[in-house]
Write a structure and sequence with these properties.
Blueprint (H helix, E strand, L loop, with lengths): L17 H7 L5 H11 L7 E5 L8 H5 L3 E6 L2 H11 L6 E5 L14 E7 L7 H14 E12 L4 H10 L14 H6 L3 E7 L4 E8 L4
Parallel strand pairs: 1-2, 1-4, 2-3, 4-5
Antiparallel strand pairs: 5-7, 6-7
Length: 212
C-alpha cells in the first residue's frame, strides 16, 4: 500500500509565483506541452471542456483561444483567484469552481463534456485514486469525447528511480508509469495514444468509443 501524501497549495509561500516556477523548470517543457493539448484533443470551437486541476488557468488558455468553453476545477482558492483574474478576456467562456477532490468528485452530470483535460496534476493521485479518477472522467464525458492528460511520466519503476537520481528538483510523487497508467483507460473501454514531448513528459490521449 502506498504512503499517503497530501498537498495544500494555499499554504505554499510560492503559489503566487506558480507560473514562473513552472516555466523555469526546463524538463517540464511547460509552454510547449500546454500548446499541444488542444491539437491532441482535436478540440473544436463548439466544445465544452473540463479542466481538472486548472490552477492559474494556463492549461485552459489554448482551448479558449480555439473558441472552446472551459470550466475549471481546482482545490486551491489562491490559484483559482489568479485564473478568475484572467477570465474577463474570454467573454464569459471561462468559469472556475473550487472542488476539494476535483478528480474524484466532479460536480457535473453524466455526458456533459466533449473534452476533459488535465496538465501536471494527475501525479497527486496514487494508483487506486487514478483508477477512480478515470471512471469519474468517463462519467462526465460524452460518447466520442476525449481525455487529454499531460504530466511527468516514467516508463517503469526503474526509469523513475533513475530520473529521481538524475534530477535533484524532481520530487518522488505518484507520477504515472507507462506500464500501468494507459491500461487504466483501456480497461474502461477507451482507445489510448501516447505522445512524448520531452524526455520525462508525455501526453496521454484517451478516446471514448461511441456505442455501436
Amino acid at each position: 500500500m502506498e504512503d499517503a501524501r497530501t498537498w495544500d497549495f494555499d499554504d505554499y509561500d510560492w503559489i503566487d509565483q506558480y507560473d514562473e516556477r513552472m516555466r523555469r523548470v526546463e524538463r517540464l517543457h511547460y509552454e510547449e506541452t500546454l500548446l499541444r493539448l488542444p491539437e491532441l484533443a482535436e478540440a473544436q470551437a463548439a466544445d465544452y471542456v473540463l479542466d481538472i486541476g486548472i490552477g492559474t488557468g494556463n492549461s485552459a488558455a489554448p482551448f479558449l483561444e480555439r473558441g472552446c468553453r472551459v470550466v475549471g476545477v481546482d482545490p486551491s482558492e489562491r490559484m483559482l483567484k489568479q485564473a478568475e483574474a484572467r477570465a474577463a478576456r474570454w467573454a464569459g467562456r471561462l468559469s472556475v469552481r473550487r472542488v476539494a477532490e476535483p478528480f474524484l468528485q466532479l460536480p457535473f452530470d453524466e455526458a456533459t463534456f466533449e473534452v476533459v483535460v488535465s496538465a501536471y496534476a494527475i501525479h497527486h493521485l496514487d494508483d487506486e485514486a487514478k483508477r477512480r479518477a478515470v471512471r469519474e472522467m468517463k462519467r462526465v464525458l460524452k460518447p466520442g469525447g476525449r481525455v487529454v492528460i499531460a504530466d511527468t511520466m516514467f516508463r517503469d519503476e526503474a526509469h523513475k528511480a533513475l530520473a529521481l537520481a538524475e534530477h535533484a528538483d524532481l520530487e518522488d510523487e505518484y507520477q504515472p508509469l507507462l506500464t500501468t497508467f494507459p491500461g487504466m483507460f483501456a480497461a474502461e473501454g477507451f482507445g489510448v495514444e501516447l505522445h512524448q514531448v520531452g524526455n520525462l513528459v508525455w501526453v496521454l490521449v484517451a478516446r471514448h468509443r461511441r456505442p455501436v
